[in-house]
Every structure is written in C-alpha cells, then in structure tokens.
Amino acid sequence: MSKQYKVAVVGATGAVGETMLSILAERDFPVGELVALASERSAGGKVEFGDEELVVQDLATFDPSGVDIALFSAGGSVSKEYAPKFAAAGAVVIDNSSTFRYDDDVPLVVSEVNPEQARNRPRGIIANPNCSTMQLMPVLAPIHKLYGIERVNVATYQSVSGGGRSAMEELGRQTAALLSFQDPAPSKFPVQIAFNLIPHIDEFQPNGYTKEEMKLVWETQKILGDASIQVNPTAVRVPVFFGHSEAVNIETKKKITPDEARTLLRKAPGVEVVDEHKAGGYPTPVTHASGKDPVFVGRIREDLSHPRGLNLWVVADNIRKGAALNAVQIAELLVAEGLPPKAARS
Ligand code: A2P
Predict the structure, then answer these.
(1) β-pairing, 309-316 with 295-302?
(2) Is the per-residue pLDDT at 317 higher than 60?
(3) Quick check: is 306 catalytic?
(4) Active site residue: 144, 244, 288, 306, which one?
C-alpha cells in the first residue's frame, strides 16, 4: 500500500507555493491530504491541486498536529514564527526562506548533490537553498569532486518571479505603462525594472555586497561542504519573468578542459548540456528554462586569462528547480527513507 502523507503547503497562493502544488500533483507524490495555507486575507479562496480545488486556510489559526510534511514558502518572518511550531507538532518542515539556512543544525539540501544531509535534521527542519545557489550546485558539484574548485566568479541575471507575485505584476504594469508613454512608478523594486537592470537584490551588507550575493558565498560552501571555496558574486535583477541565468567562471586545482566538462556534465543528474557554437545553440530563460525541471548549461569554454579557468552559462527555472521542485524532491527523499505517516503511527 502506498504511504499517504498529510502535506501542508504554507504560502500556497504565492508564486512558489502554487508551483509546489502543481509539482506535487505532477510527480504523483503520495499525498493523503493536502492543506493549502496562506494569510487571513486569502483564507476561503481556492487553489488548484491537480484536478482538485482546495480551499485556502488561514495559517494563523491552523492546528499543525497531524501534518507529516510542511513545505514553507511564505517569507522569512512566517517561517521564523511557524516552522518551529510545525516541527514541534511532529512535521518535517522543508523551508524555502533563508531563516534557518546558515544554522549548523539545519541541513541545506540540493537533492542531486547532498541528499544524505536530509536525514540529519535535529530540529525537524530542512532548508531549501536560494534559487541562484540552487541552480549552480548540480553543475559545480561534479566538477568540484574531480577537479577541486578553488574560486567561483559569478554574475547572475535573475528574473522578477524570484521577488514573488507582486514583482511579476510590477514588471507587467511598468512595461504596459512605458509602452503607452506613462510613468512606470516603481514600488516593489527600488527603481524601474521594465527595460532596465538592477544590480541590487536583498539588503546591502556591511562589506558592500548584497545579502543575495552573500547567500551564494555561504550556501555554496555549506552545500559543497568546503569552506575554502572562494566565491565572488554579483547579483542582478533583469526584466525577465521566469528563469535565472548565471555567467560563471571557475578556477580549479586540476585543469578541466571544455570537452571534459561537457562529458562530465552530460552525466550529471538534473543537468542538461546545450552547447553548440551556432545561433540559438545555448540555453536562455525563455527558450529552455521556463517551465522545465533541469538546469541547462552552455557556452562552456576555456578562460583565456587563466590556465585553470573555465567559463559556463547556467540557466534554470528559478521557481521550479530554484525553489518548488527541489522542495518536493526533498520531500521525496523523506518518502524514500521511509518516514512513517502520522496516521499510520497513531
Ligand atoms: P497571501 O496570498 O495570503 O498574501 P509571493 O512570494 O508570491 O508573494 O507569495 C507569498 C506567499 O506567502 C503567499 O501565499 C502569501 O499569502 C503568503 N504569506 C505572506 N504573509 C503571510 C502570513 N503572514 N501568513 C501566512 N501566509 C503568508
């Protein structure tokens, strides 16, 4: 008999939560009952789960006892307050916010890279990495294992969906406004995003980097289990709806040629190599990543300026692999380890 889990999605009306619901249905996750949770303002509304409609419940008044697995994507303050309550009630929490990511007793898991870490969860919480780190890991992990990565230089080109539903609405609204010669009026973003780029995501840190950039440093070191890897990031928001891109330069201990990298990455789980030297022979957010599961990699070439340098272009759907898909893949690891459903335990 298949195991039937009570699964809660916290933030079910959001861009990531909605995709979590569709991926759980798509991948036929062994759901016995699904609870869709959001704020009081959405309670009573409906969300889709496969061909069912679920009534959204208010997180603040919901009793978590009985929940087996809770997928959180409702922002850091919601995770901070409610994730420990769900964990205390016996649920395993898979949290998409940055609240617990850097705590030593919370594993930070990319399903293809360090799945074994998901078992080591003393607080009942597993953290899902930030989208820009997430897509980089399935590409860098196999290279690091065989060639030893010393340094990563990365510039990101991050789509607005990473900022949630209101950010997508702002790009749409500003684009329409500008095309009809009206004022684009920024509100979610600090400056106009339509027909523009913004080299600022999340808060500035004392060292001049933004928190989004520091997430790439902290999370790469934690996931690859190597604090000696040097990471130098620049994170940029671009007027693309779905799909983050990254121009990546790595320096390895042992030289890796482009051919060796292609061969290695063709075998890497969750990675697809798209690397032809012709127009369109490379991945882009719209032509490849949007709505798809894999991380796409192309433009693989030797760094002309460094004897052990390699350049890569890495693109993925930030809402799917960058957030919702990996959270569901972590939930699948729990099923694979034989997490007993609470209903079966009582
Ligand atoms: P709501 O729709 O009720 O605001 P996004 O990142 O796409 O903006 O989505 C954020 C998600 O987090 C939404 O589902 C949102 O629900 C939910 N959320 C935000 N604040 C709270 C809160 N205080 N309690 C519960 N859910 C929240």
Answers:
(1) antiparallel
(2) yes
(3) no
(4) 244
Q: Is the pLDDT of residue 343 over 90?
A: no
Mutate which of 35, 37, 78, 319 for ligand 1? The one with the most ligand atoms within 8 Å of its CB, which is: 78
Burial class of residue 56, CB neighbours in 10 A (0-12, 13-18, 19+):
buried
For domain 132-318, give the CATH number: 3.30.360.10
Residue 43 near ligand 1, beta carbon < 6 Å: no
What per-residue confidence (pLDDT) applies to 95? 98
Sign of the CA dihedral with 194 first, then 317, 292, and 13 last: negative
What's the CA gap between 67 and 337, in Å, rounded? 18
Relative to the CA of 13, which ligand 1 atom is closest?
Answer: 14
Is the minimum distance from the CB of 4 to ligand 1 under 6 angstroms? no
Long-range contacts of residues 27-33, Cβ cutoff 8 Å, at least 24 apart: 27/328, 27/332, 29/5, 29/328, 29/331, 29/332, 29/335, 30/2, 30/3, 30/4, 30/5, 30/335, 31/4, 31/5, 31/7, 32/4, 32/5, 32/6, 32/341, 32/343, 33/4, 33/6, 33/7
Quick: pLDDT tens for 292-305. 999 999 999 999 99
Q: Is the dihedral of CA 285, 286, 292, 297 positive or negative?
A: negative
CATH class of 5-129+323-344: alpha beta
39 CB under 6 A from ligand 1? yes
Ligand 1 nearest atom to the CA of residue 56, by list position: 3
- Whether residue 131 lies in the annotated active site: yes
**Domain positions in the chain:** 5-129+323-344, 132-318
Q: What is the pLDDT of residues 34-78, one digit of tens each?
A: 999 999 999 999 999 999 999 999 999 999 999 999 999 999 999
**Percentage of the chain surpassing pLDDT 70?**
99
Rounded to the nearest angstrom, the distance between the alpha carbon of 39 and the centre of ligand 1 is 6
Mutate which of 9, 13, 21, 98 for ligand 1? The one with the most ligand atoms within 8 Å of its CB, which is: 13
Q: 207: burial class by Cβ within 10 Å (0-12, 13-18, 19+)?
A: exposed
**According to the model, what pLDDT value does residue 1 have?**
44
